[in-house]
Amino acid sequence: MNPTSEANKIVGRKARSLLKAFATIGRQKLEYLRTDKPEIEVMLVEVKPGGQSGRHLHPVPTLVYVIEGTLTVELDDKSRHKCQAGNAVLEVINTWHNARNMGRKSLKLLVIYLGEKGRANVLRGINRLARERA
Q1: 124 Cβ partners below 8 Å, 6+ apart?
Q2: What is the rounded distance in angstroms from the CA atom of residue 23 to the CA atom of residue 67?
Q3: Which pTM value belongs to this model?
Q4: For a disulfide at 35, which of 2, 24, 50, 116, Cβ 3.0-4.6 Å?
Q5: CA separation for the pair 19, 15 (Å, rounded)
Q6: How far apart are CA 100 and CA 72, in angstroms?
Q7: Cβ neighbours around 72 below 10 Å, total
Q8: Structural domain boundaries in the chain
Q9: d(CA 92, CA 74)
């Protein structure tokens, strides 16, 4: 028996696509950053029942996978977008929004920022003022 062919067999593996997107939840066209300093940051985030992220924006593409609970994203245009456990979403870019846990149990998220070294992945109101003055 050839050991190489044995090592190439797929055994006990199951895979499913979580997200294939060309646009954000706000229907923005997906665009990659053009940078010579790419940086990926992966975070685990937990939001208690009734909790929220606070109004913020992402200047970089941001993927969110819901591990537990239901994520509710509220945009400034008053629209709401929900994502349940086991699903993923591409968040809006450069658009103010608030992520909320309107459920009765903790919301657990895996957040992946496709960013740039030295550049913030999340901007809040105070960051906005600094950016406008620059």
Answers
A1: 54, 55, 56
A2: 22
A3: 0.84
A4: 116
A5: 12
A6: 5
A7: 17
A8: 17-133
A9: 11
